[in-house]
Structures are given as structure tokens and as C-alpha cells.
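Researcher: Structure for this, please.
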Amino acid sequence: MKQIFTFGETLKELRSNQNIGQIMLSKKIGISQSTISKWENGITEPSLSNLIALSDYFDISIDELIGLK
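Model: Predicted structure, C-alpha cell format:
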């Protein structure tokens, strides 16, 4: 059975796998570190443009990023 991750958990895992911190990721996609923290903790969700930036950065589909694949 496939484990279901929340968007925040998926983002944390992607960062961990690439050994990149919140600050570095925030600089790479042009947002604040606190925004990434809020996404990872389920406080807020990213806009479509930020989902595109994240999927481009991690070279995965948006479906994979949000846990649909």
C-alpha cells in the first residue's frame, strides 16, 4: 500500500533528499523561508505559480509534488 504524504511532508522529504535547507530553497524560488516553513507545517498552501517553481526546481510533476502520483 502506497504511503500518502501531505504536501508539506513531501516538500520536506524532497529537501532532505537533496540536502537543501529552507533558506536555500527559498532563495532558489524567490520566496521567504517563513513561507516554506508554513507550507511544510500545513499552515498555508502554495499558489499555482509556486507549485510550478517547486516542480521545476525538483524536476518532478506537480502531481508528484502534491501527492497524486
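Researcher: Any notable elements?
Model: DSSP finds five helices and no strands in the chain. The mean pLDDT is 92.
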